[in-house]
Amino acid sequence: MPTITFSLKDCQQLIGKKITFEHVESMLRNAKAELTINGDEIKAELGDTNLPYLWSVEGIARYCKNNLQLPNNVLHLEPSSQNIIVEKSVKTIRPWIAGFSAEGPALSDAFLKQMIQFQEKFCESYGRRRQKIAIGLYPSEHIAFPITYTAVAPESITFIPLGMQRQLSLKQILEQHSKGKEYAWILEGMKTYPLLKDAKQQVLSFPPIINAEKIGKLEIGMKHIFFEATGTDEEAVNLAAVIFAYAFAERGYKVMALQLIQEKEKLKTPRIEWEKKKISPAEIEKLLGVKLKEQEIASLLIRSGYQYAKGVVSIPPYRTDVLHAVDIIEDIAIVYDFNKIPEQQLATATIGSAQHIVSTIDTARDLMVGLGFQEILSPFLSNKGILTNNMQSTEEVVEIDNVMSETYSAVRNSLLPILLELLSKNKHVSYPQKVFEQGIATKRDRKVIADHELLTGLTTHEKANYTEIRQVLDFVLNMMGVAYQIKEATHPSFLQGRAGKILVQGKEIGFLGEIHPQVLENFNIEMPVAGFEIDIQGLEE
Amino acid sequence: MIQKLHPLERKILPFLKSGITLTQLQESSGMKQEEILRAMHWLENKEVLTTQRTMTKHILLASNGVAYQKNGLPERRMLQALATAPMTIAEVSKKASLNQQEVGISLGVLKNKQAIIMEQGSMQLSEQGKALLKQQFDEEKLLKKLVTPITWDVLSASESKAAESLLRRKDIVMITEKTEITITLTQLGEKLSRQKINAEFLDTITPTMLQNGSWKGKEFRAYDVESNVPRIVAGKKHHYRFFLDEMRKKFLSFGFAECEGPVVENEFWDMDALFMPQFHSARDIHQGYAIKEPKYDDTLSKEVVKRVKAAHEHGFGTGSKGWRYEFDTTRTAKYILRTQDTAISARTLASKDLKIPGKYFQMSRCFRYDVIDATHLSDFNQVGGFVVEENINFGHLKALLKMFAEEFAETDQIKIVPGYFPFTEPSAELFAKHPDLGWIELGGSGMFRPELVKPLVGKDVPVIAWGLGIDRIAMFKLGLKDIRSLFSHDLEFLRECRVK
What we know:
By secondary structure, chain A is α+β, with helices and mostly antiparallel strands.
């Protein structure tokens, strides 16, 4: 979720009206943003990761103006004779580029800060850490058009990158410059690297890494600016240019389109398209349950930043998040006000039903409580040391690959180790201790992973033994009407000769016995423990 | 009242009167001191009497004092030995059987009283000495009186002077300080002490008593039922599990059917089937735990993957543009730990058992890639579900959310505000005004996107989806501050934690 900051005063100037912070806040809440203010500085947490045009004050001002029905600065793309030559060599490494030139008032501190902030947030999250999209801004006075977007060998060219004083090759930049080291992963394995240079062979930048110190440094007061975005996704690259073009228009700049010359093809950039979508009052009623007149729909749409004529909605070019009519209808509903939509009761009767196994689970739990056992609820995540090493077990477990903490690095495959761990933490608490847990454990047999609903009980005190836990198990199974047999068996966590497997219709459903002293030592427990574990599914059949 | 008294209280009661002391009570009742003290303490709590503690100083005989009381003080014995004739020190000590120390002290005392005259190694009585033969010393008088210890305060001036002089000598007398308790009966106490006490109150009900009917016609002692008794450790359900049980019951009563899904989920059901694009940053917020082995689920139905892939790529004929990228069919099978319970909703929607109209819910454990603290767990429970029915809309969603708020937060004051979820449009967040906590976020909701519904169900039908933040609800219902206490392993805490 991106968080941006901007000045309330700057925002008021862009809106052209001195509206209060509270007013801005209430409007932006509809755009799923949460605002706080400190002096003049507003901090906005933007909940909708699909609306990047709101990640700068210019977009926020446009949103507010639409909402307040104030006139917007319309974006007119002026033609220009400036070209970007796109060489074939970039096709396989970073194929797309978009850009424009802007001319206007001296660049203000506020606008420069917003552009830098936007570029960071947008390229980091939406641009997948610059891999998908990277942005460059340049003072255009010193640029000799046409610009060439090309791919070159890593050591074939040198230039002075921003923030340094000496010439470095592209390879050296990746090795030595802080930005180079940060983003080198994007170019890993590539034989050539992308490069932007002008007609005089001056390097503009090494996208997506760094601009050139000489002609790639934007400063306050500059009036002529060149913008470019490069990346791997044509639509996303164009979106970046569109959002910036609108921001410049909002600030009163003249924005000029450029020509992309690719082989024999000539294309205008940025592509400003108001996509059309048909929408009917019936569709709106179907989703919202509200009957709206066409006039009302038109007004709600315009207040949401759309254009509307005769059943056709025009979608602003920066709203690439609109995929379906439902996206537009949500905007209508928000401006209409959720509170005004009447509640309707669900009228169709349906029959409630729990998972079939729940009844067996709850009966077993009730019986355990009746036997004086305290129910436990534990995390599903544990670790291999506890689940297998401590239990002297060689069973496979589901292990986490991207571990956050060693304590939680595997999914539990049994509840016995989980409850033994609990006992080890409660040695100071009065005995006897009788605990049980019912819950899911996830077992793995090579490639097959399966969840099991288990019931596990442990008793511990000076005289805890096989007989006691057998009595508990007998009571639970007999009261549930389960026909079972106990057969002596070997289990690495139980003491040999004092352990048995539980069979129902010849099928093994669990184990009981006295926990092996070595296992107790592994858990640092100094009190005898007897326990059982059964698979509830085995009681169902 | 009398019936409620403990046997000890009843035993002491007839001996009580205002002004009586513990010592006196011990004599008169013949009870042990600790018995009297316990009974007095209980009676004081019942406002039958008040007690006053006083410290008293007593003088009593020490070891030499006991002998001197019988045989006379050494100075008296020396005086008497000299009554007949002058003697040397050796002679007199032999005659009066005094040890060397006693001789020294006696000489000092008698010299002081000017009772003896020393002449050339021999001593004899003076006139004063002869007179003293017929008089008792103050010290002797006191010694005689000390058959029992005497309260210091009652000594006369001469007695206390004598006492002080004896205290300076070895082991004749000593001082003890004793705390005495004096009783004053309250009005209730006066009344009670005059009542005739039936000593035949029965205490424990015994089987013999019941068999032979000996209890008949007798009264049972009443207990102080209001006083605290020792705690017992018993079996009980876990507080959070109990809360989840109650929640399930509610959903069943609303007509919802319960669904389930696996803990180790694949990206397909967890995210792709929910129309969350594989490239999108929205997936960051659902970032989950990948597993080591096996990496991929090879049991996924190719048919449903094909439909979801088509929805991602170009909208699957729903009127949507789709996300317009190449869907990765390898990545979709990648195993992760379930990040959201909506994965189960997706599975249910795609199931051949889906009923339209239908109401479904799930209660499941989900996992978040997060650092654990007082408000975050990597392991948490989610409750969510959906309602599918032709001709339902956002108005029905609002009514449903209101019902949830009433049932789970006990309020009808709710706010439904725009929210963002990658799989719903419109999306709404539910806030409820809890009587004590103010506005709290209860959950999220929305209408599932057509690009999600059509590939799974096979047709476009309205689906209201919702999820509730139950950890939060459980915490305020159970009065817990730290989210970790929901899965606590502190047995002392678990034994004491209330279930409801």
